């Protein structure tokens, strides 16, 4: 499946999202909703807007970092600290299906929108929120940041070379994972609302999302009481597996079970190694990993990465090159999957962003609209709300919008 | 928000999922659906079942690795290569809302369930699938595996020390992310189906999911044409940020903007550094990172990790300890958020797993049922389908179930 013609309606068509989020975690979530057809109104403070608008690589006056997280949205400026701003927000919420926020716990309550009030005033509303540690518990008020969530969730602790320090992932993975979890939770709550008429409050946290990814590493710790060791690019339980030296670089090879290992060794013309007691099964191969690595490398270094990839794929062995981002986006498969798309941003030119990872056959994700300039749709949205032109201008003069 | 009493109905109550998946990527997705109330029927080949049942840490005869991905499901054994098996699957699909599979592209078609047939026979069905590279494009038939997806997506290439090799994340992150994307996509398609009556085919891929996480790193590459450098635990655009040496270990500190940096330096009694031209703003601090690191470390190494965490949190600076998994699950916040839960597995005892990262107020995730033994619900499910007892026994004898 590939991407969509822009005119297709998405799965979430007719769902209106009021988006109070900024930086990464919230905007990534609401962008997922927008990609799939929801109408997203991004509310930003007048003057500066989302801080990411002025961060990262600015090309022709537009932040391409901001573009990565804010397509398929309209922008409305609104001073939520002002009384007038709060009144307008209340009017928007009356016609909304979803509200998403990523303030620190307590900020919404200070704005007069505690959980009880939200439930009472907007019983059909699905409220989505992301924070660092969750809205209960001793750290609820601590400031959070991706790097801290990577550290405290145990995620960093399992990553990195065996003889080195714990290693973060470079993408803000805790923000991204919590966003994806929230997008899922919001849609699950919408499914229920379609049936019951009742809204819900959905919450994800940067730390909790990463803890939820620990999978068999958590199982290993629970079962043994031992903290899983860092193993770099080696698999903790399987060998052969990892990066292998070739004549012109390294190739990633991952035979994940005995059948695959047999295929791999046959492809190397080394099937006889399975008759060697040291390598006869996976437990033995794990114990004699370094000896086997040396033997296998003597074979792999005789041919090039490309040769091995062609040869091993024919043999049905999972393998691939370690791509840098240029190689990734130049890759014919990545292009066939349209994982880079270009947004037509008018005077700002065409801005490339990553494509849609969720493909749908009938109601595909699409670029329904580009990335909004700050306040680009303020007047349009207020008009839709029935605010008079003179009033809009007056609010503008007062700095409310 | 915390977790739920077990009796609460989840958001997806009333949604029936036929689950043909195995190993990690599919089972993690269907577990998310089950956690939130969907009724999941896991179909496994007779005799051995999902291969993960015999992998990882086996305690009292039960794989705790399997438990991590298969709570809240019932298990039905069914030989899908047999004609009788296919007929039973067809009957199950008639009453299902969702079908999830993670075969290689083409396998479902060989079973007689190509996209066209699925759409025609089950127009209301939401079909979810995960594969390695997507079901179109030159690599569609290649075998996939998490490590290969980490390599080819560009994810490994941006992770790791500046002077070292690209570094994988230890959890099977491409499986987990594609699962989360699929759970989101399935629910989005269900929202549409509630409104239109029409099903959809939703697909995610291990590589595409990780490419979708590249965020500002992709933006940087698109904007500059330069491949982002690996920077280890340092942030590529911000300083101070990273691990700092203390008197008894390292502490992660992440002031993410100028206000936070000011707070951090004030907390260190080093605010005067901002008057030093070398450190006056972030671009200067990035250029003089090593000099500043040395100055700051001379201060941080005078106190312990615990002292710094208490002190910096009071000052509003994001910081934390790099936890190993024991420290993570012992952490009072993680406990308050119930990110470790125990499943009562009868004769297999109590099995701990990670908790629910998506919290809901009205219809929370819950342990509706435990982890099924292989074929534990075969008879029950076939009875529900109206199959006679004698026929069930005969099929058992023929090895169909």
TrEMBL record, chains A, B:
Matches recorded under InterPro entries: CoA-transferase_III_domain (IPR050483), CoA-Trfase_fam_III (IPR003673), CoA-Trfase_III_dom3_sf (IPR044855), CoA-Trfase_III_dom_1_sf (IPR023606)
Keywords in alphabetical order: Transferase
Coiled-coil blocks: none
Record bears the keyword S-adenosyl-L-methionine: no
Any one Gene Ontology molecular-function term assigned to this protein's record: transferase activity
Keyword Transferase among UniProt keywords: yes
Protein name as catalogued: CoA transferase
Source species of the chain: Billgrantia bachuensis
């Amino acid at each position: 499946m590939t991407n969509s013609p822009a005119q297709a309606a998405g799965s979430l068509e007719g769902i209106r999202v009021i988006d109070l989020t900024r930086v990464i975690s919230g905007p990534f979530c609401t962008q997922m909703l927008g990609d799939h057809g929801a109408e997203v109104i991004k509310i930003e403070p007048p003057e500066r807007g989302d801080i990411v608008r002025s961060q990262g690589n600015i090309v022709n006056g537009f932040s391409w970092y901001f573009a990565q997280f804010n397509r398929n949205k309209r922008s409305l400026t609104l001073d939520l600290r002002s009384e007038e701003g709060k009144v307008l927000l209340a009017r928007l919420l009356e016609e909304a299906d979803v509200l998403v926020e990523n303030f620190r716990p307590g900020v919404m309550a200070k704005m007069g929108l505690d959980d009880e009030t939200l439930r009472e005033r907007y019983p059909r509303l699905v409220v989505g929120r992301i924070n660092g540690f969750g809205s209960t518990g001793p750290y609820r008020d601590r400031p959070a940041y991706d790097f801290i969530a990577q550290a405290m969730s145990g995620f960093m602790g399992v990553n990195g070379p065996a003889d080195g320090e714990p290693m973060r992932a470079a993408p803000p993975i805790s923000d991204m994972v919590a966003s994806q979890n929230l997008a899922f939770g919001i849609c699950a709550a919408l499914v229920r609302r379609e049936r019951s008429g009742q809204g819900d409050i959905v919450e994800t946290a940067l730390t909790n999302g990463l803890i939820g990814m620990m999978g068999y590493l958590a199982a290993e710790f629970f079962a043994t009481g031992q903290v899983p060791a860092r193993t770099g690019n080696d698999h903790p339980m399987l060998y052969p597996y990892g990066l292998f030296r070739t004549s012109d670089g390294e190739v990633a090879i991952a035979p994940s079970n005995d059948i695959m290992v047999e295929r791999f060794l046959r492809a190397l013309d080394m099937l006889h190694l399975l008759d060697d007691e040291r390598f006869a099964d996976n437990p033995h191969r794990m114990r004699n990993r370094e000896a086997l690595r040396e033997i296998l490398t003597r074979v792999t270094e005789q041919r090039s990465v490309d040769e091995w990839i062609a040869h091993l794929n024919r043999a049905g062995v999972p393998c691939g090159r370690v791509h840098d981002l240029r190689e990734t986006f130049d890759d014919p498969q990545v292009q066939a999957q349209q994982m880079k798309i270009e947004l037509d941003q008018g005077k700002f030119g065409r801005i490339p962003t990553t494509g849609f990872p969720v493909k749908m056959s009938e109601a595909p994700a699409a670029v329904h609209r580009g990335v909004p300039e700050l306040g680009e749709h303020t007047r349009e949205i207020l008009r839709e709300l029935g605010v008079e032109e003179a009033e809009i201008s007056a609010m503008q003069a007062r700095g409310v919008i």
